[in-house]
Amino acid sequence: MLQPTGMAVLARMGLAEEVAAHGARIDALLGLEEHGRTALDAPYARLGAPGVFGIGIHRASLFQVLYDAVNAAGIAVETSREVASSTVEHGQRHLVFADGKRSPGHDMVIDASGWASRIAQGEQHGLLPYGALWASLPVTRADPVAWNLLEQRYRRASQMVGVLPIGSRGSGQPEEVAFFWSLRGQDLDRWRAAPLERWKDEVRALWPETHFLLDRITSHDQLTYARYAHRTARRPGGDRLIRIGDAWHSASPQLGQGANMALLDAWGIAQALRQAHSINEATSLARRWRGDHVQLYQAVTAAFTPMFQSDAPMWPWLRDRVMAPMSKLPPVARLQASLMSGLFGWPLPVLGLDLPDYSALASAIASRAAALDQSYSPTTRQTSLPDAS
């Protein structure tokens, strides 16, 4: 999910419309528990900012747009190296590779290598018990997909299945959805060893309408298991070093903030480098600009995760019986939308960012959609607010 925060960064880079053209417009998040009770109903319309929406996109599409921009800027990229650590010598930082060789000295290293970063040695903790199986599946306009929603179904908090439209990876490529299923890490080997149909029966029992997607999964290998960790690096930076994204602050994906937080971090260090008088002053400034927002979302995500991925019965009861009814109250509804969009805590002004032009983004998405077979009308599903779909 690309939220308004991440899109604000991409807009300042001149890439927002190109990214949006690959993605799908998401107007709301809708989650139902196994008996049909609404557990999550979060339209972006509740933000009070006209026209704002999220964008579902395949991570390969986002990567390609950014990678093309790197190449266009003439930035050298070196691959096929396994980084083991880094060290500072004579005022420059070197990468140390697994084969014992070292990189040339650099003025600065930015660690964007995720929660399992080798550079953040000694901090490999916080692995969460639940991860998720993911598959990107082709869909057509004839399929009963809620094209504008991230939809989820829950059995307590121990089972969750979700479908997120993610647009198209390029010209001539099909529309796709991301299909995901919560699974404890300790159960992964058991899932791989069991017949695939047994798992499909579990999914159908929870959400029968996904049968057409399940029919397109014919092998365990079509699903990739993603592990998650909740960890904030004790030292987000050092001498000529700063961590961004999950290398600094990893969390479960319940609020859909991962890529957006990383984009904000990257923008923060870029701005700090323009203003500071030294590399280490820039890293310190960037950490200060981003620190409050990072701590806030780490705390909120830690609080929300057990409601959607845990074994304890209390958390889903609290989600369905307390949080869901409260979210219909206008002040709580707006707070929920602010949290979901990444805008809680006002992260944009401190970085000199504004909301992107959503009319232009909507046009970019509509232009791609117009190229599809228009003989079918997209299926939408109504949430509790009329303007959510």
What does the model show?
This protein has helices spanning 4-12, 16-20, 59-72, 188-193, 196-206, 211-214, 258-275, 279-308, 314-326, 330-341, 347-350, 358-370, and strands spanning 24-26, 28-33, 38-43, 54-56, 83-89, 92-97, 109-111, 130-139, 149-155, 159-168, 175-184, 224-226, 231-232, 237-238, 241-243, 249-250. The chain is an alpha+beta fold and 389 residues long. The relative contact order is 0.20. Mean pLDDT is 91; it is low at 374-389.
Blueprint (SSEs and pairs):
Blueprint: H1 4-12, H2 16-20, E1 24-26, E2 28-33, E3 38-43, E4 54-56, H3 59-72, E5 83-89, E6 92-97, E7 109-111, E8 130-139, E9 149-155, E10 159-168, E11 175-184, H4 188-193, H5 196-206, H6 211-214, E12 224-226, E13 231-232, E14 237-238, E15 241-243, E16 249-250, H7 258-275, H8 279-308, H9 314-326, H10 330-341, H11 347-350, H12 358-370
Parallel strand pairs: 2-9, 7-15
Antiparallel strand pairs: 1-4, 2-3, 5-6, 8-11, 8-12, 9-10, 10-11, 13-16, 14-15
Helix pairs in contact: 1-7, 7-8
Descriptive keywords:
389 residues; alpha+beta; D-Amino Acid Oxidase, Chain A, domain 2; seven-stranded mixed beta sheet; three-stranded mixed beta sheet; 16 strands; 36% helix; 21% strand; globular
